[in-house]
Amino acid sequence: ETDRLTRLVNDVLDLSRLESNKRYHFEAIDLTQPIEQTLRTHQLNARDKAIELVQDVELHLPTVLGNYDLLLQVLNNLLGNALKFTQAGGRIAIRAYAMGCEPEHPHLATCVRVEVSDTGIGIDAEDQACIFDRFFRVENRVHTLEGTGLGLSIVRNIIEKHHSRVHLVSEVGVGTTFWFDLPVFQKDTPLLDGALNNGKTTDSPAPPSL
Ligand code: ATP
Ligand code: MG
């Protein structure tokens, strides 16, 4: 009970911080790292439930502009949900790959798309419209599963802070995929220029000669 209360309080605090005008530090992020960290965090839980966790991250994924802690929280919330709403024997995958941009980022050449998909219980069309609302939880046979219904509101808020949107595709009894695009970090981004290249070079080292 104390644990659940602590989580609720933390979630409410996170949400109010996100909804205030607090400024977050944005930098170039290699999403491979928070993705691996998230998978490690949930590994044991997945093994206990006999759920397969798959990591499918493109090699040499371009860095994106974002806040590490916030993106880690998004991945944790989405993976936590996937685990909670997927039965034993199921499969959960986190994918990340570079691609052309959606209309949300018309001025940028490419985005990184992140997908968290599961073979869980799914969400029907009517409920899909509400799941990002605060405290909304689908009434279903597994309503005994714990949670307060804040996780996805936090996800939506964080992705909006990154000037993007969360989408989902879901079918009851088949599974769910949540996905979002993040703008690829460009070296000439004015906000970050200089700060990032301090003492570092972005060029790869010359290959050793034979
Ligand atoms: P909390 O995240 O606060 O612990 P929660 O997980 O119930 O509680 P959200 O993460 O906001 O809340 O999700 C809202 C609701 O959306 C869930 O209660 C569930 O009904 C539905 N949902 C979310 N993710 C999935 C999923 N991967 N598969 C099926 N249903 C989902
Ligand atoms: Mg949740």
Automatic annotation (TrEMBL):
Lineage: Bacteria, Bacillati, Cyanobacteriota, Cyanophyceae, Oculatellales
Region (Disordered) location: 195-210
Name of the protein this chain belongs to: histidine kinase
Full-protein positions shown: 453 to 662 of 668
Single GO biological process annotation from the record: regulation of DNA-templated transcription
Keyword field contains Protein biosynthesis: no
Keywords from the named record: ATP-binding, Coiled coil, Kinase, Membrane, Nucleotide-binding, Phosphoprotein, Transferase, Transmembrane, Transmembrane helix, Two-component regulatory system
Record domain Histidine kinase: where: 1-186
Nucleotide-binding recorded as keyword: yes
GO MF: ATP binding; phosphorelay response regulator activity; phosphorelay sensor kinase activity; protein kinase activator activity
GO cellular component, one term: membrane
Entry superkingdom: Bacteria
Subcellular location: Membrane
